[in-house]
Amino acid sequence: MTDVGHSPSELRSAADHPDDGLPLEGAIAHIAALEQLLEVHEITALEQAARLEDALRIQQELLASERTARAAQTESERRLRLALDAGGMGTWEWDIAHDRVIWSPEEERLYGISEGSFSGTMEEYRERIHPDDRAGSLALVRDSLEKRAPTHH
């Protein structure tokens, strides 16, 4: 007779009462196998829980790092706005690939136009440069492009 299909309680009972039909050695072996299986499942569950805890810890560290970086960026932007306001300056950038010029609201105010009304074209930018400064300013831009300079002042 085999012990396949018997519940753990039946096997324990057979171990306690060897004369009830199940061989004692088979019942003991089956109990040992079940205990081993439970131990493997317990270890696997503990390992999975540890991996999950590690993943959650890493996620929390990343979120904290992101919060810190955002706070630093916000503070940096606040300082830049303060410096631009104090210096009466604005900023602009030229997206060369799309031939678009982006002006900050401060830059628009410096040119005496309402916020958001700059068209973003290089042509409008050129037209807004004072005629006495236009040739020199555009020469500096060309020079920066030829030298592949990261910035132009």
3D structure, described in words:
There is one protein chain. The model has no long low-confidence stretch (mean pLDDT 86). The protein is mainly α and 153 residues long. Helices cover 67% and strands 5% of the residues. A hairpin with a 4-residue loop joins β1 (92-95) and β2 (100-103). The protein is rod-shaped, with a radius of gyration of 38 Å. The protein has a two-stranded antiparallel ribbon. α1 (8-16) runs antiparallel to α2.
What structural category do the secondary elements indicate?
mainly alpha
What integer is the average pLDDT? 86
* Order of helix and strand elements from N to C terminus: HHEEHHH
Q: What is the terminal-to-terminal distance?
A: 93 Å
The biggest beta sheet, please? 2 strands, antiparallel
Name the helicity range.
55-70%
Number of strands: 2
Q: What portion of the residues fall into strands of 2 or more residues? A: 5-15%
SS field, number of helical segments? 5
Per the principal axes of the C-alpha atoms, what is the gross shape? rod-shaped
